[in-house]
Design brief:
The chain is built from nine helices and 17 strands. It is an alpha+beta fold. The strands form four sheets. The chain has an eight-stranded mixed beta sheet, sandwiched between helices. A four-stranded antiparallel beta sheet has the order 4-3-6-7, with no helix packed on it.
Length: 408
């Protein structure tokens, strides 16, 4: 028989899974309702490991061992689209679904991961929190738009403080990594707890840059997403050392389809343009870009490889990251080498070096081995996130205080 279903997808919605599909064109044109009079939906929890498994995990998987979740009739909207809401999945689990019409074999797998919306914030939640922050302190907080994403969403830029520009914070350059859940709470606490400090210094923050891909994660893409929807790694797309091809993680930056593909031209991605626009005027004294995985990150910090031979730049980076790191990880067991060099051509730190010798860092999560293990497997929970929200606030505040003293 002709294939009865196309466009099947599953998205996570506030702890539930919305499964949707459409009649295939032949079935729709034939007005065949009989084939869809009985629908069967199967579900199986999958031992999928975030950061290790990708789409290939689900290739050719059949429905053997899957549980029958539903059997019955579902009314189509517009005579074509079907929607089923599964209210029973557990947070932090990955599932595969299959759909079967009266005479078809089960269609699938249709994969989805159900993430905690308090740990992975949606775009709507991020904007709600930013607008609340602005409304709390309209004289101190300025919220604007610095560009649009590939899919046309506004990329927010928030400035707090009235003094000289001291620090830049850039989140979620890679969709599966960190940003808004750490940056926005730090900004809020600065506004609430350090108003005098903000008379001397200012912070500019882009809490989430690769918003489209992060929304895909929020809505249940099980695998780690690095690039934007056009397949561009934004942290290879900045106009720095463009003629230098990089080979990392087994990929080449000049190869379309690679997870580190730099794009067809410098700053070709709209998200990259937004970051460039945000830093087109006065330059901060330091910039932190948030990486690692699954909503948390921390020291060690990586600076641009291109600046490793510059003694003055390196010493300035060491000075700044030492202040940040000691406030971030005050525990003796975390004391160590705060700074490394690993940011390559096309990265944000490499561009900021060329732009104006700005000390710029990619934050990873190497010292806290337990946190690193958990975030690599997408096992960040609310308790771990709150721990790292506090650490980021302490690190940011300590560095801002040091920069403010330089302004005195």
């Amino acid at each position: 028989m002709r294939k009865p279903i196309y466009g099947a997808k599953a998205i996570a919605v506030e702890g539930s899974v919305e499964l949707s599909w459409l009649k295939s064109t032949p079935m729709f044109q034939a007005n065949d309702d009989e084939e869809f009079a009985r629908i069967r939906i199967f579900r199986r929890e999958e031992p999928f490991v975030f950061g290790e498994d990708y789409e290939e995990f689900f290739f050719n998987a059949d429905a053997s061992g899957a549980d029958l979740l539903f059997e019955g009739s579902i009314e189509a909207t517009n005579r074509r689209k079907y929607v089923f809401l599964d209210r029973s999945p557990a947070l932090g689990r990955t599932y595969a679904y299959w759909i079967q019409t009266r005479n078809s074999a089960p269609v699938g797998p249709i994969p989805v991961r159900v993430r905690d919306p308090e740990v992975w914030w949606s775009y709507r939640e991020m904007m709600r929190r930013l607008e609340a922050l602005r409304d709390t302190a309209p004289g101190t907080v300025e919220l604007s738009v610095c560009g649009q994403t590939t899919r046309g969403l506004d990329i927010p830029c928030v400035r707090i403080g009235k003094g000289k520009l001291a620090m830049g914070l850039v989140g979620a350059i890679h969709g599966g990594e960190s940003g808004p859940e750490l940056i926005i709470p730090a900004l809020r606490r600065l506004v609430e707890e350090s108003p005098d400090l903000l008379q001397t210094v200012q912070v500019v923050a882009l809490p989430s840059v690769n918003i489209d891909s992060r929304e895909d994660e929020v809505q249940g893409a099980p695998w780690y997403i690095r690039t934007n929807p056009s397949g561009v790694d934004l942290n290879r797309n900045f106009p720095a050392l463009w003629d230098q091809v990089e080979y990392g993680y087994g990929f080449s930056t000049d190869e379309p389809g690679s997870l580190t593909y730099r794009g067809p031209a410098p700053a070709s991605a709209p998200e990259t343009k937004a970051v460039v626009s945000a830093f087109s005027g006065e330059l901060p004294k330091a910039v932190f870009s948030y990486h690692a995985l699954a909503s948390i990150c921390g020291p060690p910090a990586l600076a641009a490889n291109s600046a490793e031979g510059s003694e003055g730049y390196v010493n300035r980076c060491k000075y700044l990251i030492d202040i940040f790191g000691k406030a971030f990880y005050p525990e003796p067991q975390f004391a160590g080498k705060w700074l490394g060099f690993g940011c390559c051509a096309g990265s944000l730190p490499a561009w900021l070096v060329e732009r104006g010798q700005v000390p710029a860092f990619d934050l990873e999560c190497g010292f806290d081995t337990d946190a690193l293990r958990r975030c690599r497997r997408d096992e960040t929970d609310l308790s771990l996130l709150k721990n790292y929200q506090t650490r980021h606030f302490e690190g940011v505040r300590a560095l801002l205080e040091a920069l403010a003293r330089e302004e005195d």
